[in-house]
User: What shape does this take?
Amino acid sequence: MLNLKPNTNHIVLFMQAEIERERQKIVEIATTIIPFEGWTEHALKLSMKKADIDPNLISIYFPNKLISVYEKLLEIIDYKHTSSLDFEYLKSLKVREKIFYLIKTRLEISKKYKETLKTGSSLLSLPSNTLRGSKKLWLSVDKIWKLAGDNSLDFNYYSKRIILSAVYASTLLYWFEDYSEAQKDTIIFLQNRIDDALKFGKFSNNIVNLPLKFTKLPFIRLIFNR
Assistant: This one.
């Protein structure tokens, strides 16, 4: 006999997928409103209304409100960045060239959201969100290294990401203030920062001699969740 009883798990998964789709739609709309209204709950509610979503459901779609919006925007950029990559071309590059290509293309994808990212970065710099901001930066550089083909599990895992965190963070700050044609100034800045890091590998070899106990420090484990 045919069982017509609805599968509860399927219904839940469908609802979650629908909420996620609507959440992405709201954030995309928010990036066109926030530059004028600022990072405010009012701006978020306007975005929800424009997406035909009841603003009273804000806690369901964005449990941490504005922080949740910013984090969702970073997820959208991650997805678009990965989807835009030419992996055959990426494989043909040397490590230093891969890092340059990956950061450059990420900035190109992010350009559409530049003003929203710039003003929203202050949210993660608040004392209550510092740890959350540190983890987001770490996840970003971790993804870049993995896309570059790095699968290290020893102390090099930390040293490479610490170095790239400094390069990526400083480049972002420069990019926020760069309005040169085709962001040429940022590209030059990025190239110089990579050079300053001594092409990563050489610098990593110096760092790797630090005590491995560094990775056992509670603060390191807390931030990087390893």
User: Anything to note?
Assistant: Confidence is low (pLDDT under 50) at residues 206-226. The radius of gyration is 20 Å.
